[in-house]
Design a protein that fits this description.
This protein is an alpha+beta fold. It is built from 16 helices and 18 strands. The protein has helices at 3-12, 21-25, 33-40, 57-70, 122-130, 148-154, 161-164, 167-170, 236-248, 261-267, 287-303, 312-320, 327-332, 346-360, 397-414, 433-452; strands at residues 17-18, 50-52, 74-77, 94-97, 104-108, 113-117, 134-135, 171-177, 183-186, 211-218, 220-221, 225-233, 255-259, 277-285, 307-308, 336-345, 366-373, 380-389. The strands form four sheets. A seven-stranded antiparallel β-sheet has the order 15-12-14-13-17-18-16, sandwiched between helices. Helix 9 runs antiparallel to helix 11 and helix 14 packs antiparallel against helix 15. The longest helix is centred in the C-terminal third of the chain and has 20 residues, at 433-452. The two termini are 26 Å apart.
């Protein structure tokens, strides 16, 4: 960016434009594995021209009008927890750091609604409503390092989604600044039939359609009681069938997680039963309903060939569910690894599991190919694959990483599944988006982008092939 433009921007937003190198370096990328690998390898990763830290929606409007006038790209940045490469800048780009827009605007205990500025930390938002005996019910693994606006931008799922829904089920209203600087609030009533639901243009758009500045979420009262259950799963098919029968009988344990035998050995060494996987559940709600659910779930599980396991396994999961190693720790051990979340119908899911595991095991230097399920629906379920490679030469890590992703997504699509469940698309899945949307769907997405952002100002190069 030319110096004169930078100085003018500083005059428009005093004390909110940062161009010190340390700050710029800290915002070059998010938590995508491959960017951390390149940084670990001391490869050059470009900085943005500057960072803008707005303190209100009006500041965002000022920035977007300035960017529109001078055709400058703006890359929105929540708290940097994305894992699919949604953040990538050039020395000509403005990085819009939403972290200072972190206020609790309103909590309404009668209507069970809470409004937050989009940059607020997710755990801080949850703690604010918890003081009133309420919960958002959205618990992504990244809750302590992600923003509410980021949840919306990536169409996130939380670990308690089977009962409480994904973020699209929790959103009540959103405020968005458009690429031309206009501002719009979408959602004003419990339901509307006022044409297409325009909120969905910005859910999952990953900063390419508008800047989410405020979010209103629909709350729940905190549950009266919580209980745990666990079952040994002789085959993945038996576990899938048990989960299907549970949810199709209209029981809704908020957490239902099925681990294959390989993951049990790695993650639950104290609960290994030879050759078996584990199905863990958390049950919440009114005490009478939880007790009835526990009894019915046990009957369904046993009828499908599962065996009772120590429920402490589910408690252990809850206590350490968000503990994950840093990328650099893995690189230092010679490993490159990642998780890939996909989904499919009940008819498809066993085939997806087998095809992806087989495909991953054809990649050279693979030392782990495993999976668990974590989000359950009446019509299907997701799978969360984990791979790790340990090549002889660390320079081969990146190519192996992309080969694992390529084989996983193509095997999933060939089996009829969906290639993106809750981490978003970013630059990582972008080349494969046609597998999900088809060529006509991708063309429609491009048409929407062109109509909303004809100058391609917002997060160019992200999401859209």
């Amino acid at each position: 960016m030319h110096t004169s433009l930078l100085e003018r921007l500083k005059s428009l937003l005093p004390y909110k434009v940062i161009d010190q190198h340390d700050d710029l370096d800290a915002h070059r990328f998010d938590r995508w594995c491959i960017k951390h690998y390149r940084d670990w390898q001391a490869q050059t990763i470009e900085r943005p021209a500057c960072i803008v830290r707005p303190s209100c929606s009006a500041d965002v409007q000022v920035l977007m009008r300035f960017a529109s006038e001078h055709t400058l790209s703006v890359v929105p940045f929540g708290l940097g927890s994305g894992v699919c490469g949604g953040i990538e800048t050039t020395p000509e780009d403005i990085l819009l750091d939403m972290g200072s827009m972190n206020k609790v605007c309103d909590i309404n205990s009668m209507d069970l609604l809470a409004t937050f500025e989009a940059g607020i930390n997710g755990l801080e938002a949850e703690e604010a409503v918890a003081k009133l005996g309420l919960t958002i019910g959205h618990w992504p693994q990244s809750i302590a390092i992600s923003s509410v606006g980021g949840w919306v931008s990536t169409r996130a799922s939380g670990q308690f989604s089977t009962a409480y829904g994904n973020i699209e089920d929790i959103i009540y209203a959103i405020e968005v600044v458009l690429p031309n600087g206009d501002i719009v609030t979408l959602g004003k009533a419990p339901r509307a039939a006022a044409g297409p639901d325009l909120r969905h243009l910005f859910m999952g758009a990953e900063g390419t359609m508008g800047i989410i500045t405020q979010v209103t979420l629909s709350l729940r009262k905190q549950p009266e009681t919580r209980a745990f259950s666990a079952y040994y799963v002789p085959t993945m098919s038996a576990g899938f069938n048990a989960q299907r029968h549970i949810v199709q009988a209209d029981w809704r344990p908020p957490v239902m997680r099925q681990y294959d035998a390989s993951e049990v050995i790695r993650l639950f060494p104290d609960y290994v039963l030879s050759g078996c996987g584990l199905l863990l559940m958390v049950h919440e709600g009114p005490a009478d309903r939880v007790n009835a659910e526990l009894n019915s779930v046990e009957s369904i599980a046993l009828a499908n060939g599962l065996k009772c396991a120590d429920s402490q396994a589910a408690k252990d999961w809850l206590e350490r569910r968000n503990h994950v190693p840093d990328w650099q720790d893995l690189f230092d051990m010679g490993w490159i690894a990642d998780t890939i979340e996909v989904s499919g119908t009940w008819q498809q899911i066993e085939h997806i599991y087998q095809q992806v595991i087989n495909a991953l095991n054809t990649v050279p230097f693979v030392i782990n190919a495993s999976a668990h399920s974590s989000h359950v629906y009446r019509s299907g379920i997701n799978l969360y694959f984990t791979f790790a490679c340990k090549p002889d030469n660390v320079a081969d890590m990146e190519a192996l990483y992309f080969e694992c992703w390529h084989k996983t997504l193509h095997a999933t699509a060939a089996a009829g599944g969906g290639i993106a469940h809750h981490h978003g698309t970013g630059r990582l899945r972008k080349p494969y988006l046609e597998l999900e949307l088809g060529s006509v769907g991708v063309s429609l997405l491009r048409t929407l982008k062109q109509a909303i952002d004809p100058q391609d100002l917002l997060n160019p190069g992200n999401l859209i092939p």
